[in-house]
Structure to design on (140 residues):
């Protein structure tokens, strides 16, 4: 588990992750419309979410040619929603045969969550992650 999650919480871990990409000439925006310090998700659920976000960022940095990545976390009464949007070349390959994408899907299924990809050539990619709060967590 990333030390920042256990020591400082989920928000600090995400901020540290974004900072680790600071030398890639990519502008990051990280926005919270909920209180990550009082999340109803367990540390194990947050770890799985962190790993999914990490994979999404890594894919965008490596493959999209983007100059900007926006990460927005919001909360409804029943779920946490994460949007990850880049301004890269688009056409995100969502084939389940790709190991990273399959890993993201598997982690989210264990959380009772979903992931959706929206992408078009030249139009960037948006990933929408949704995790319900009342789900009984099952480790992948």
């Amino acid at each position: 588990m990333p030390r920042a999650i256990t020591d400082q919480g989920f928000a600090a871990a995400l901020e540290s992750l974004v900072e680790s990409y600071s030398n890639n000439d990519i502008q990051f925006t990280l926005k919270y419309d909920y209180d990550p310090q009082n999340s109803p998700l367990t540390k194990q659920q947050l770890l799985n979410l962190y790993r999914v976000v990490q994979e999404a960022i890594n894919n965008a940095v490596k493959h999209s040619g983007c100059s900007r990545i926006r990460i927005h976390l919001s909360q409804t009464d029943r779920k946490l929603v994460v949007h990850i949007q880049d301004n890269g070349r688009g056409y995100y390959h969502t084939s389940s045969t790709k190991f990273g994408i399959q890993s993201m899907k598997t982690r989210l299924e264990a959380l009772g969550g979903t992931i959706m990809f929206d992408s078009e050539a030249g139009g960037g990619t948006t990933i929408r992650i949704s995790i319900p709060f009342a789900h009984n967590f099952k480790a992948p």
About this structure: The helical segments are 3-7, 10-20, 43-64, 99-110. The chain has four helices and five strands.
